Amino acid sequence: MAKKKSKSDISLVCQECLTKKKITHRNYRTTKTKGIQTQNLKLNLRKYCKFCQKTQSHKEGAVK
Fold first, then answer.
1. Which residue among 2, 9, 24, 25 has its CA within the 20 to 30 Å range from the CA of 64?
2. Is 21 helix (H, G, I), strand (E, B) or coil?
3. What pLDDT sits at residue 2?
């Protein structure tokens, strides 16, 4: 019998594009452990956005 996954997939959304251009650019996909999910903490990282061409804040969004 297969084990349950202890991680889930999430996508990172550029906040600069979301607030100024009203476009959700999902630039990165990563995983998040189930322990952090139960605490309802949102992941927030500074990553490069190829649409803004800058390093911007990326927050956790739903995977489509």
1. 2
2. helix
3. 64
Nearest to 47 by CA among 64, 33, 32, 59: 59
* Rg, Å, the chain Cα set: 13
Complete domains list, the chain, with CATH = 7-61 (2.20.28.120)
Question: How much is the pLDDT for 46?
Answer: 92
Contact 15, 58 (CB under 8 A): yes
Handedness of CA 12, 43, 19, 16 (dihedral sign): negative
Query: 45 is written with which tokens?
Result: 């990282």
pLDDT digits (tens, 9 = 90+) for 4-26: 777 888 889 888 888 888 878 78
> E-assigned strands of the chain?
7-14, 26-33, 44-49, 54-61
